[in-house]
Amino acid sequence: MEELITRIANNVGVDSATAEKAVGLILAFLAKEGPQDKVGALIAGIPGAQELIASADKGGFLSNMMGGVMGLGSKLMGAGLGMGEISGVAKETIAFAKEKAGAQTVDDVVNSIPGLGQFI
């Protein structure tokens, strides 16, 4: 996971703590909204993903999240990211997930969540 966090910090320009929180929020969103079999394969393919999801769920994130992609955007803005940074973090996270878990698995998850494809 450190590889992804460093990549985001370098390419998007956010600090490591913010990058880690954002990735956790994105992965938690995918875990909540995506098909469980595909998300399970995605999460299993990314070392450290489960820990970041658990960290993002502190405070009931998964159960209390405003619905859909807009809810995720709201959470990411609450973490201190602007729209450009959100897009950059999302694109880096998805690209990394494709490298680790396979493009087809990630595409299946993304395509199963209404509205997500337009942001990545």
Short synopsis of the structure:
By secondary structure, the chain is an all-alpha fold. 76% of the residues lie in helices and 0% in strands.
Features:
120 residues; 0% strand
How would you sum up this structure, described in words?
The chain starts with a helix and ends in an 8-residue tail after the last helix. 76% of the residues lie in helices and 0% in strands. It is globular and about 30 Å long. It has 120 residues and is mainly alpha-helical.
Cα-based radius of gyration, to the nearest Å: 13 Å
Distance between the termini: 20 Å
Structural class: mainly alpha
Order of SSEs, N→C? HHHHHHHH
Residue fraction in strands: under 5%
Percent in helix: over 70%
User: pLDDT below 50 for ≥5 consecutive residues: which ranges?
Assistant: none
Summed over residues and divided by their number, the pLDDT gives a mean of: 90
Spell out the blueprint of helices and strands:
Elements: H1 2-12, H2 16-33, H3 36-45, H4 49-56, H5 61-64, H6 68-78, H7 83-101, H8 103-112
Helix pairs in contact: 1-2, 1-7, 2-3, 2-4, 2-6, 2-7, 3-7, 3-8, 7-8
